[in-house]
Design brief:
single chain, alpha+beta, about 50% helix
Length: about 120
């Protein structure tokens, strides 16, 4: 064990991704119902971030301009925090994006692989 050096913060990215991955689809669907926005197409998660996908580019831009990104981020954090076993997450310290199905279809061939690549 001589010369062993461990940096605990090195585990933080993995712990954050794990917390996001432990949110069940049932919790995501309940959040979507709680948001109750007919313009919201899907809530997509990938590598420690969340994207609220609306149907059109215009909807995404308008709703973000109205400050809904911060509101939705807080709502998502409420379901995320119980899965944060090691306390690495803080409100406002994870990636939240607004995007659209229109962008997804037009620029990524409606394919999640291309979208997150």
């Amino acid at each position: 064990m001589n010369g062993l050096f461990v940096v605990f913060s090195a585990f933080a990215p993995l712990a954050r991704e794990e917390a996001h991955s432990h949110i069940s689809e049932k919790e995501i669907e309940a959040l979507k119902e709680r948001i109750a926005n007919p313009d919201l197409w899907v809530i997509s998660r990938w590598l420690g971030g969340v994207t609220f996908m609306f149907f059109t580019d215009e909807q995404a831009k308008t709703l973000e301009a109205k400050g809904l990104k911060e509101i939705y981020a807080r709502m998502y954090f409420e379901i995320l925090k119980p899965h944060d076993e090691f306390g690495y997450l803080a409100e406002g310290k994870f990636t939240v994006s607004f995007d659209s199905k229109q962008n997804f279809d037009d620029n990524f061939e409606s394919n999640w692989y291309y979208y997150y690549k």
